[in-house]
Design brief:
Layout lengths: L5 H13 L6 E2 L5 E5 L3 E6 L7 E2 L2 E6 L11 E4 L4 E2 L3 H25 L3 H10 L7 H13 L3 H12 L6 H16 L3 H18 L16
Antiparallel strand pairs: 1-2, 2-3, 3-5, 4-7, 5-6
Helix pairs in contact: 1-2, 3-4, 4-5, 4-6, 5-6
C-alpha cells in the first residue's frame, strides 16, 4: 500500500474541517471533494504538483453529459501553488486553500441556484476559442428552459465545429438530436433526465429519489 504523503494528510484534514460542514463529500480517499446538486456537481480538487504541495481547482460539472469522470465545465485552476516545506507551514496553507475553495463553492451555489439562473449565465457568455463544450452546455440549458431558438443557436455552434476527434463526432451527434428535440420540451427533459441519471450512475453517485435528485429541473 502506498504511503499517504504529509501534504495529502494535511489537505484532507483541512478539507474535512472547512468543506465537510458545507455538505461537500470526499471522493473516496482522493484529494477531490464534490458538492452534489442533482443535475450538477461542484468540484473541488487539491491537485498535487511535481513537488509536494497543492494546486487548487474549483468549478462545476454539468451532469447532462454521459461521462464516467469528473470535469470542470465552468471554473477550474486557481492561481498559485502551495509548496510543502514543513508540516506547520503547510497546515496553514492547506487551511487557506480550503477556505478559498469554500468561498468559491458558495459563489457557485449562488450563481447556479436553479435552472433559470444557470441558463441565463450559460447563454450570456461570449464564445471562447477552443472551448467546444460551451455551446453544447448553453444549448442544453436553453432547451431545458423551453427556449427553442436560443437552444438551436448554441447547438448550431457545436455543429459548425470541425470534428477532428471521435469524441467531437459523438458530441455533434448528440447536438444534432437535441436540435431536433428542442421543439418538444417534454422530450428534451426526458432525454436530459435519462442522461443525467446515467452519468450519476457512471460516477457512482446516488440515483434514487433523494432530496438532491427527486426533481432535477425544478
Amino acid at each position: 500500500m502506498t504511503a499517504t504523503s504529509p501534504a495529502t494528510r494535511l489537505v484532507t484534514a483541512a478539507a474535512r474541517e472547512v468543506l465537510r460542514p458545507l455538505g461537500l463529500q470526499q471522493r473516496g480517499r482522493s484529494r477531490t471533494w464534490i458538492d452534489d446538486h442533482g443535475w450538477w456537481l461542484g468540484v473541488v480538487e487539491f491537485q498535487p504538483g511535481r513537488s509536494d504541495g497543492s494546486y487548487l481547482n474549483v468549478g462545476v460539472m454539468w451532469l447532462w453529459q454521459d461521462r464516467d469522470h469528473l470535469s470542470f465545465d465552468a471554473g477550474g485552476r486557481e492561481p498559485g501553488f502551495e509548496r510543502f516545506v514543513n508540516p506547520a507551514q503547510f497546515a496553514l496553507d492547506a487551511r487557506n486553500l480550503a477556505r478559498r475553495a469554500a468561498a468559491l463553492v458558495r459563489e457557485n451555489r449562488a450563481r447556479f441556484v436553479d435552472l433559470p439562473s444557470t441558463t441565463a449565465f450559460l447563454t450570456s457568455q461570449k464564445p471562447r476559442p477552443d472551448h467546444f463544450w460551451d455551446g453544447y452546455h448553453a444549448g442544453v440549458a436553453a432547451g431545458l428552459s423551453g427556449r427553442t431558438t436560443t437552444a438551436r443557436h448554441h447547438l448550431d455552434r457545436v455543429l459548425a465545429e470541425d470534428a477532428f476527434a471521435p469524441w467531437m463526432v459523438r458530441a455533434q451527434e448528440s447536438a444534432r438530436r437535441l436540435h431536433a428535440l428542442a421543439e418538444d420540451p417534454k422530450a428534451f427533459r426526458a432525454w436530459a433526465t435519462a442522461t443525467t441519471t446515467s452519468c450519476r450512475r457512471r460516477l457512482e453517485l446516488p440515483t434514487g429519489r433523494t432530496a438532491a435528485t427527486a426533481d432535477y429541473w425544478s
